[in-house]
Amino acid sequence: MSMSPFTALNQLNDYLSKVIIGQEHLLERLLIALLADGHLLVEGAPGLAKTKAIKDLARGLEAEFQRIQFTPDLLPADITGTEIYRPEDGSFRFQQGPVFNNLVLADEINRAPAKVQSALLEAMAEQQVSVGGTTHKLPSLFMVMATQNPIEQEGTYPLPEAQLDRFLMHVRISYPSMASEKAILQLARGEALHHDIQPPAHIAQETIFAARRAVLELHMDPAVEDYIVQLIDATRRPGAYREELGNWLDYGASPRGTIALDRCARAHAWLNGKDFVSPDNVQAIAHDVLRHRIIPSYEAEAEGVTTDHIIDQLLARVAVS
C-alpha cells in the first residue's frame, strides 16, 4: 500500500534533517519550493551545504539532478543544449543541455553574463527551451536552485530586479551553531567511513504532484486572502501605512509576489500538518517571498535600512482582518 503524500514528504524531511545539519530554514524552503512548483535563490557563504541540500533532496526523489557551475565564459548553449550535425545523413540532432533535468543547481548564478542568466531564467519561466526554431519541453517536475555568494563580488553580473522576480523565494542562510558544527563534524567523519545515511524511499514524481494538488486545495479563509493582498498593496503604497516607509521604498512587489505569498503560505501550512492557512503561515514566509521583490530607495540604503527591516515594518503595520 502506497503512503500518503503527507507521510512521504515528512519522511523526506526527516531524512534531509539527518544529512543536512544546522540549515533547517533552507531545508523547509526547499520543500516549500518543491510543493509550490517554484524556484529558489539561495544566498550564503561557501561551505554551508547549499549544493549538498539539493543533491540529497534529489536522492530522496525519483528525479535526475544536475549541477551547473556558472562562469564568465559560459554560453547559453552550455545550459540549454545545441543542434549537433550528423555527417552520416547530413542532418542536425538536438543534444539536450543540463537544464533538461528535474532538479538543477545553478551554482553562483551571478558569475555568468546576462545572456546565460536569461537562458536559464527563460527556461524557468516557460518550462521549455527553443533552439533552431524548435521548442523542447522540460520535464514536468522541474525546479532550479540558484546560489549567490555574498562575498567576492568583484567581476560578477548581478541579476536584474525583473529577473529576480522569477524566483519564488530568495533565502539567506548563515553559519551553523557550535552544537550543529560538532554534529556536522561527526556526520562528515561517518560519511568518509562510508556510513552514509540512505533515504527511506525514493518518492515517485506522481506523489509530488498529488502533494501539490493537496496544497492548492487547502482551505484559505477570504480574510487571509485579503491579508495577502493588503501586504502586497503596502509594498506599493507604503506611505499610506507609515510616512517613513514611503521614503524607504521605491518599488513594490508585482502580482507574482501575491501568487508566491499564497502558494508558499499554503505549502508552509500543509507541511506543518494544518488543514487551513492562517496569517501566521503568511508571516512565516513573507521575508523570503518579498526580499527580492521590493526595491529600497537611495535614502533607505544611505540610512542602512535593509529590505528585511522594511518587511518587518510592513508586517507590523498591516492589520490582520
UniProtKB/TrEMBL annotation:
Residues 250-313 form the ChlI/MoxR AAA lid domain. Residues 39-169 form the ATPase AAA-3 domain. InterPro entries: ATPase_AAA-3, CbbQ/NirQ/NorQ/GpvN, ChlI/MoxR_AAA_lid, P-loop_NTPase. This is MoxR family ATPase. The lineage of its organism: Bacteria, Pseudomonadati, Pseudomonadota, Gammaproteobacteria, Oceanospirillales.
